[in-house]
Amino acid sequence: MDLVTVFIVDDYLLTRIALRQYINNNSSLKLIGDFSNAKDCINQLKTLQPDVILMDIELFGINGLEATKIITQKYPNIKVIIHTSFNSDERILAAMSSGASGYCLKNDYSNLNKIIENTVVQKNFCVDLELAKSAFSKIPLGNIYDFENYYEYQRLKNLLTERELEVLGLMVEGKTNSQIADEIIVSTNTAKAHVGNILTKFSVNDRVQAVVKAVRANLF
After folding, report:
1. Are 92 and 127 in contact (CB under 8 A)?
2. pLDDT tens track for 134-160
């Protein structure tokens, strides 16, 4: 396998120094550029393109995720690996959606070479297993009983407030507006308003249609 060429993009000098040392001590990697901001990196790509870019997220000017999207759209053969101190689930999923090929933490160099090689050779999205488990747990579960609409359950549920979901449950039980009002201790007009909001959000004309939709989506 040929040497994997690498760019570093990080606004913290000590991180760039550490990465330089790591790459220079690795016989399968070759550093061909490092930058303190994404704009300079993107400009350099016009004349020199690496196999992999190690990209920080928190950057002055163009942030790392925005830069990743720009780079992967314009240079699809370049693999961008987010290299950051942040291990939030949202950032991992955002990295995936921006086109990144991997995600790794700055304080852990044990898997960096493996992640770099896997993104280049296997062309997979590579991330530490524990980080992946945590991030992917945020993805809603599909409806395994309805292959035509895997995510109807989560979509419909997300449309409603907690109170509206409670009211919908009482509608499924066949309760009238006045009975719902007594159950949740509000006025009949307020209960009626909640029911009306549910019908509007479900894009249906009556209570029966709303209940059928809720049952089909396995909301209760």
Report:
1. yes
2. 555 555 544 444 444 544 556 677 788
